[in-house]
Amino acid sequence: MTFVYLIQLNEKYRTAANWAPQDHTVVAQHFNFLKELYGNGTVSFVGKTGLSIDHPHNTGIAFFEADSLESAELLMQQDPAVQAGLMELRVLPFEVILPHKNQ
Fold this sequence. Notes:
Elements: E1 2-9, H1 21-39, E2 43-48, E3 60-65, H2 69-76, H3 80-83, E4 87-93
Antiparallel strand pairs: 1-3, 1-4, 2-3
């Protein structure tokens, strides 16, 4: 099954002054987590909105495969940014209607 992973900064981190050096390390770990899932084929697409960190609709997005909603949520709960409380996520089932065209 395909799922979409929507992740946003928690409100505290929408202000740059609230970031500590270790928060930047967590974001790097978050990126590596998604990169590993992309590399092993679990995640097929990763991106984010082009909005500033203080914008309430600033959102990261990933499309991935899992056997069930429960297993999808368990997988994405392993994201270091979620575990550190830096970001919050939503995992939703996703139905592809028009697939991405190869360029």
